[in-house]
C-alpha cells in the first residue's frame, strides 16, 4: 500500500574502497538491452526524449548523448536502494568509458505515477543521489556529477499496470561529453577498482582493457 511517509534515504548499499586516479579504459561498449515488460499485451512506452517533451522539458541535443554513454537503472517500489543488477549496469558502463574521459554525468531520478507530487519528487531525488553515491565510490569526482528529479512527471510507460510501474521507477544516467575546459583535468579512473567491483557483483563478467 502506498504511503505518504518520507521517502527512504538514498544508499548504494555497498561502497568500494576509493582508489587513486590512474589510466582510464579504452573503447565504449553498447548498453545491454533494456529488459522488456512482461505482460501479455505490450505496454505503451515513450522514448526518454519524448517523455521529457510531454512536460515541456528541453530535449538534450543527440550529439551530446552518444548511444553508448547513457543507461537506465530501475528501483523497487518506494525504494531508493540500488539493486545488484543496477550496480552491474553502472559499473560495466564506467569500465567502458573512453580513455581520459571528459565531461559531466547527469543523473535524473524518476518514480512511477502513483502517489503525491511532493513524495515522488523527494523519492526521485533520493534515487538520483543513490546512483551518484555509487559512482563516486567507483572513482568519479563529485564535481563531475549533476543530479535532478522529475518525480512522476516523465513516465516512459503510460499504462496503469504493474509492468509499466516497474519501468517508470528508474534513474536515467547520461555521460555527456564535452571539451576540457581551461585548467580542467580529464577524469582518469583506476581500472582495478572498477574491475574488482564488477567481479564482486558478477564473477561471470570479464572486463578487458
Describe the overall structure.
This protein has 209 residues and is of the alpha+beta class. The protein has a domain at 69-179: OmpA-like domain (60s Ribosomal Protein L30, Chain: A, 2-Layer Sandwich). It is built from 5 helices and 4 strands. It has helices at residues 48-54, 84-95, 117-137, 162-168, 191-201; strands at 70-74, 103-110, 145-151, 170-177. A 4-stranded mixed sheet has the order 1-4-2-3. Helix 3 (117-137) links the parallel strand 2 and strand 3. Helix 2 (84-95) runs antiparallel to helix 5 (191-201). The protein is globular and about 40 Å long.
List keywords for this structure.
alpha+beta, 209 residues, 4 strands, 5 helices, 28% helix, 60s Ribosomal Protein L30, Chain: A, globular, single chain
Helix percentage? 25-40%
Radius of gyration from the alpha-carbon trace, in angstroms: 17 Å
Sequence of secondary-structure elements: HEHEHEHEH
- Average pLDDT metric: 70
Between the first and last Cα atoms, what is the distance in angstroms?
47 Å
Instruction: Output the CATH class name of one domain.
Output: Alpha Beta
User: In percent, how much strand structure appears in the residues?
Assistant: 5-15%
What about the largest sheet? 4 strands, mixed
CATH superfamily membership of one domain: OmpA-like domain
CATH topology of one domain: 60s Ribosomal Protein L30, Chain: A
Number of strands: 4
Large-scale geometry? globular
Q: Structural class from helices and strands?
A: alpha+beta
